[in-house]
Amino acid sequence: MAGKGMGIKVLVSMIGLDSHTTGAKVVSSLLRDAGFEVVYLGINQTPAMIVNAAIDEDVDVIGISCHASNFSLIEELLDLVKKRGLTDVPVVCGGNIPPKQIADLAANGVAKVFPPGTSGDAIIEYLAANARRAKAADGEQPARDQPGRVR
Amino acid sequence: MKYTTDYGYEVKPVYGPADVQGLDYARDLGDPGQFPYTRGYYPNGYRSRMWTRRMTAGLRSSKDANAVLKKYRAMGQTGGMCVIHDRPSSSCIDADHPRAHGENGVLGWPGSSLLEFEELMEDIPLTGQSITLLGCCAPSALRLAYVVALAEKRGEDLSQVHGSVTESPFSNVFGQTDVQPFDLNMKLFLDASEYIVRSRIRMRAGLVGQHFQESGGNNAQALAIELSMLKEICGRLVSERGLDFDDVMRLPYQLVSVGTRFFEEIAKVRALRRMWARMAREHFGAKSEKSCQLLIAVHTSGRTMTYQQPLNNIVRCAIQTLAGAVAGCTAIDNAALDNAYAEPSPLAARMSLNTQHIVAVESGVADVVDPLAGSFFVERLTNEVEEAAYRILEEIDALGGLVAAIEKDRIEAMMEEESSIKFREVRNGERLIVGVNHLAVPPEEEMFEIPVQESGAGDSEAIARRMAQWKRNRDLAPIKASLQRLHADARKGDRFNLMPAIIDAVKVYATAGEIVGVIRMARGLHYDPFGTIECPYGLG
After folding, report:
1. Number of domains, chain B
2. For the segment B197-206, what is each residue's pLDDT rounded down to a tens digit?
């Protein structure tokens, strides 16, 4: 899997007050090992802080780790992503997410949910194929030259 | 498959007398009730006192949590109640704080004022059962104040209230993070502890080794961490607060995680009793036998509860409950079959409590004290985990104790290394988990869909609005006066006990955010841990 993530920048973040960081840290290190550039924001991030960081860092995908809660904050994040014009940056989620919420999140625009049991390889494969710059490389969408900062 | 203990010692196919050579019954085990208490504290074990069988509650509003507590009582949970805070109140911010948005009553109880505690406890007795409140160290002093204030309001004798509402500052440095700084947490915990000891209140303080183990630590590391927590906390209460060690030891209980490796879990708890008894006598010079008897509660392991095929978790929970019961403990609260999904559904809660009742009354394990004593294997495991733990304890001591070791990032590093070993072992198939890396089935072949409890987020804004509205309608003069006094007291140095001022402020309905905010200001910190709201009372 090494090298699969070359040239792709991933933002990994917790959302709200959730501080169960083990999953986010494990996934971040898996992605780094696969060649992705990872920006790990850590705990206590609001939807606005996450979107601002995504713009400032010009990332290609936003990954949110959550522990059985904070689904309403993820929906707010999705709204903001749309409002701020980041429609080409997919939002993915991982963690202890019940099946009903997986369906709800998908319906609201989360590109992919990785529940427990997902292999590291499956996450790497998905991001390598679907992150913004990966798609751009396939000629689907151009990468932004400048971060589109909207405040 | 790997034949090793979870801390990496070889497990042989068979054990015999040679494995326990040198074991001296009187010195190393003793009868139940005899030093070093390897076999427990009571000659008649559970016949004298059955362990408290409880479930952790807390979801949505205080009124909702109150209804759940009443339901649990109807399910046979009469020995004690256990409630956990939601994230805003764990962080000591109020429900109307911007960062509490979407978080109030989610996975816990929104307990940021006496008003909420009064609603939580409506028509529920404060005495005759143990009162346990969990969720971070920072609100510990507030929770103690809630109990003191409510007992006074109800005209109940405070000396009749028992349980545990305080949690050591080590609770949230492993795997989870606390928004309040460690030194503030330590100060408030020592204040609450000193107040409990000096006022001779029958409340215990939780030293939660469970979090360390649930975040990836192994059995030997967990033992070492648990003992070094005790050493650090008891040491500070003696040296910094001038308390007598034998008085201090009325305070702590250790919350231990018990997983599925049946014999190892039992050996760990037996070793903990023996190691503590020796530390109490040799290190602290205990004069009373009671001080050598560490109170141990068990939490069955949430991290072993799988997302895949969740009904399998009932079986895991039963094995763990059996291990906790055989090991000997004062209380068990169980992880539930839907632990990887949400807060327990009513079905999961009933299954969990019934698991305990079945073990307690049907299996016969509660009839005989320490039934595995003398087993070549279990005695060998007890010696081994003790030996491995002593080695780690020596390393922590050499670094200057647990606080110093944490500051040097050594504990975090130990935990992360261990959890990556575990992750690798599961990935390589050296450790098998049914439904995860062994006999897994695709999601569409799951044969039973469990009911999943909603997270409670839908009620968050209602809880926030209620808090904001209620804040406006309070009698502000006594709140302001009590906060001024608290602010002044908080500037008198770390050893000046803030409990009396906190109790006064709680009684007039100052909130968690206000009380801890004012203490923060007196310590030169911003009123708000997130730096977004200002103190409304103009202290400075």
Report:
1. 2
2. 999 999 999 9
